[in-house]
Design a protein that fits this description.
This protein is mostly helical and 68 residues long. Helices cover 63% and strands 0% of the residues.
């Protein structure tokens, strides 16, 4: 496992522990669709760069105020 993947998983764990309700796969799909990467083969983009971007997105999701 690469360092970027380990950081992504650790960040996702923190998201879940704080009440996040999306799966890692759901977040990845949303990110790929919004970046226009959903129809491209995964080998066209660097996994480490994508993992780092995922960490940023998950951190933002973690910091969103919870709805009542």
């Amino acid at each position: 496992m690469s360092q970027s993947e380990a950081i992504k998983i650790k960040t996702f764990d923190r998201y879940v522990m704080r009440g996040g309700d999306l799966t890692l796969n759901q977040i990845e799909i949303l990110v790929k669709e919004n970046l226009g990467l959903s129809k491209l083969p995964s080998d066209l983009f660097q996994p480490d760069v994508f993992d780092e971007f995922m960490v940023l997105v998950i951190e933002q999701l973690t910091n969103l105020p919870k709805e009542k």
